[in-house]
Amino acid sequence: MARQSVAAAGAAALAAPAFLLPSVEAPSRALSHEATVQQPIVNTAGSLRHTNCVAVAVGLGAAAATARRTKKAPRASLVVRQAEGRLLRPRDRTDGHGWVKEDPDFNAADESAVSATHTIELKKRPSGIKRYTHGMDGKGAMVMDMNEKARYPGDPIGQAAVAGVKKGYVVKSVNGTDVRNWDFEDIMDLLEDFIPDPDVQSTAAFKGGAQRVRKHQQVPFPVTIEYVEMKPMEKSAAAPAAPPGAWMPRLSGWSDEDLMKERQRAMAMPEPAPGYNGPRYTKAADIDDAWLERLKQFQQTGGLIPKKDAYLLVLDVIAQLKSEQTMNRVQVGPGQKLTVFGDLHGQYFDFMNILSMAGMPSPNTPFLFNGDFVDRGSWSIEVILLIFAMKMKNPNAVFMNRGNHEMLEANMIYGFAGETGAKYDLDLFNLFSESFRNLPLLHLINNEVLVVHAGIPGPRPRVWLPGQTHDPEDAVPVNARATTLAEIASVDRYTELTPNSYKEAVDSAPRTEEKWETDSRMIIDFLWSDPRGGAGYGPSYRKSRGVFMFGPDVTAQFCRENNISLVIRSHEVKAEGWLKDHDTLMSVFSAPNYLDTGGNKGAFLTLTPGPNGKLQASPTSYTAVPHPDLPPMYHQNYIVNNHPHLTRQMRKKQVAQADDFGDSDFAGYQGPDEWEEVDAGATLNAMSS
């Protein structure tokens, strides 16, 4: 079926199909996409030299523009606020997720629901209240997240806790003005001055100093706030039970027999409708350079390959990945180069810009995608199918690591499951999940550079298990010895594991299989940990649910004892798209202007053998390109709207906890200039700002 194209505003229009655009026509997002190449950059022996040259990338044939988008998808009760440039997005109230265990459905103006009133004076910012949320109608403001104690006497971020504020308190008045019937954003105008909403929910995460449209002037401190405690409301009715034959996510593995049956089912699927003019996939031999170029052009105008072809492609990728190792080994010889990409997060049009700079993979120019290909962005299907097609064209020129967003739990809540259902069907999502379970976790390049999505193994014995409390300034020293590459290579990677599910398994049925526990802990570290400036291991800003940060001494020990010179990881936004976190650790994040609000650059790293044979890492930074005006996670409500049996019990049990271990790739509550913390103190201060 032919698809209509809609021209996006701008000097160079982006063609996009009608079905990809929201019902209200709006200009495309556009940012300058000048790419900065730094070379010759990091010699993996540890030296760093700065010689900059600038290359201007021609991204999608579109001219650079400078307008930043502030418009978000409208909330029914706040259409006027949207027209004024509000920066909040609705939180889905039907699926039970968010920053609290239960939906805080409250009516701030209902006097009969008030159980107690507290008058609090806050003397200065930051007060320690980090997040609020609104009631069902968008009115009122409830404390959702806060610092629960001061770090030292007089610590400003402990003010609210010392004064008696608790999570669940609802704002009644500010300096005597009753605000219970005010729209949430208007209350936020009074209490703070910027709400970037990094997790694309309607919660308010504060960052100071930025400009936005405000209806009310920020209240000066000291300020007197009257809070009320609300009586518990009756719980919402349980979601309907799954009707017979209803779709459910497949949590268990697929046998060879299962996959054969799925292939037979795919082969029997209907052929595309007459008039289909995109590429066809039946087997890996179909794909050549011309086929890939045709696919890219087809996708950029909104085309989707037939469902039958998508099934066959994913099934072939599963078969290929099953033959690979937990830690793949790759050799880059003289005259060759390997390009490492960080998080892409479904930002397809930025991916096209990246390929215009990096070229396409080949045996002499292999690619390594370091996890988080999907979720967040609204073109995850296009991104992953293109990567899979590249993989099947030449399996030894395209490598993939699993990221924390190649997990069923994350996909159910951050958009990929809904997008797959909206564009194809959810049975295909189950196949994607199987492909992700088979992804390698690490790649070792030339026996000297290790590439992993998040970080290296954590402390032994394990401390701060998920759910335990601890002082955020706690730290433990490096291990007596580093985990060896042989131990890493032996990890059984085939799992659906999160920090919370690991703890639940340990709590409900303590195990004696030491290898299972060791493997599980390492997988959590590979997919969720982060570097820090302080020594040893420390608690993570990702809500400290069994996730760790590791210091430069940990990295140095790991590299020294394993005879490697550099670890490359992704997982976090970096202002320039990359950062040399430690002497032997680099981060790379490839999704520019993350969530359309980050303002960050993206980057990729090129590894080439130097004159001495050692690999050198050269980063290329770039900014975002225009794309059709779809907000992040545009398809996230597909499951809620079409599969109500999944919206509460199942999703709350299996995926809502994703936020409990701080899934956001943003480094806590830090502003753009603070993402690249240099020490543990800076991290703690940023979290409290």
UniProtKB/TrEMBL annotation:
Names of required cofactors: Mn(2+)
Annotated Serine/threonine specific protein phosphatases domain residues: 401-406
Pfam family, one: Metallophos
Superkingdom of source: Eukaryota
TM helices/strands, residue ranges: none
Keywords: Hydrolase, Manganese, Metal-binding
SUPFAM superfamilies in alphabetical order: Metallo-dependent phosphatases (SSF56300), PDZ domain-like (SSF50156)
Catalytic activity: O-phospho-L-threonyl-[protein] + H2O = L-threonyl-[protein] + phosphate
GO MF entries: metal ion binding; protein serine/threonine phosphatase activity
E.C. number(s) listed in UniProt: 3.1.3.16
Protein family (similarity comment): Belongs to the PPP phosphatase family.
Protein name (Swiss-Prot/TrEMBL): Serine/threonine-protein phosphatase
Organism of provenance: Cladocopium goreaui
